[in-house]
């Protein structure tokens, strides 16, 4: 299968530059947030063990108070908002550390950088929203897929484009993206498979989409867990990524099409249908004493 040339038109290339830069900024911000968590651990502040997001409203208010000189864990814990208030006793224990002026200096620098990166991400996102306006319908189509949100839909379009005429079939797109593992076997023994090296930006987006889809009660979520149980999580990511790319190809090939989820019980329903079919065939064979062979009726769609 030949690798198609993917020289995108200028608007798509510019969109790709923007989405890749936004992802780079987000990675930098994530790294800086991890530094904050390590700094707090050094100060024996275990806030992240109680709060799932220490950079939310409650967490930021507590950090700001610590920077202003507040050290009383009881006072800091009472700054919790919403559902976090139910964890005030745990917060009080988590905030009883040894936060010094040294920690405050570094924390202020880190929070300033996080806020600066957040501002840059918002600026780039606004630019992306302007750039992608002509492809609004494609964004809507992809956003319907389980695990895909507006941000990941934008990234998919930036990396793949919207012209599926570049790929003769969905299989060509999957192969180009390196999400079609090649099984290698010798003397009847499988040696595993490799997808090869593809577009790392596209792979990162698909990985996030698969992870999100795995948490849903959908066909893709069920498919992930079926593969993960038998082959492991890495192969499940490749397998579901393969399915998502196939769905994308079909959606973008027809602007009027919409995504319809097969449902979380798809595999069980198909299995039950086949069991019923085999049972009916066996009954008919016992009644007639003849071998029964099924054939497709004219105009009937083949079974999935």
- Structural class, judged by helices and strands? mainly alpha
Number of helical stretches of at least 4 residues: 12
Mean pLDDT: 88
Number of strands: 2
Largest beta sheet, briefly?
A: 2 strands, antiparallel
Share of β-strand residues: under 5%
- Numbering strands along the chain, what is their spatial order in the largest sheet? 1-2
Note the quaternary state here.
Answer: single chain
Instruction: List SSEs in N-to-C order.
Output: HHHHHHHHEEHHHH
Helical amount: 55-70%
* Computed Rg: 26 Å
Query: What is the overall silhouette?
Result: extended
List unreliable stretches of 5+ residues: none
Can you characterise this structure?
By secondary structure, the chain is mainly alpha-helical. The protein has a domain at 10-133. Helices cover 61% and strands 4% of the residues. The protein contains twelve helices and two strands. It has helices spanning 10-42, 57-67, 73-77, 88-94, 101-131, 136-143, 150-160, 170-176, 200-213, 219-231, 233-253, 266-288; strands spanning 182-186, 189-194. The longest helix has 33 residues, at 10-42. The mean pLDDT is 88.
Which terms summarize this structure?
304 residues; mainly alpha; two-stranded antiparallel sheet; 12 helices; 61% helix; extended
Summarize the structure.
The chain has helices at 10-42, 57-67, 73-77, 88-94, 101-131, 136-143, 150-160, 170-176, 200-213, 219-231, 233-253, 266-288, and strands at 182-186, 189-194. With 304 residues, it is mainly α.
How is this fold's topology laid out?
Layout: H1 10-42, H2 57-67, H3 73-77, H4 88-94, H5 101-131, H6 136-143, H7 150-160, H8 170-176, E1 182-186, E2 189-194, H9 200-213, H10 219-231, H11 233-253, H12 266-288
Antiparallel strand pairs: 1-2
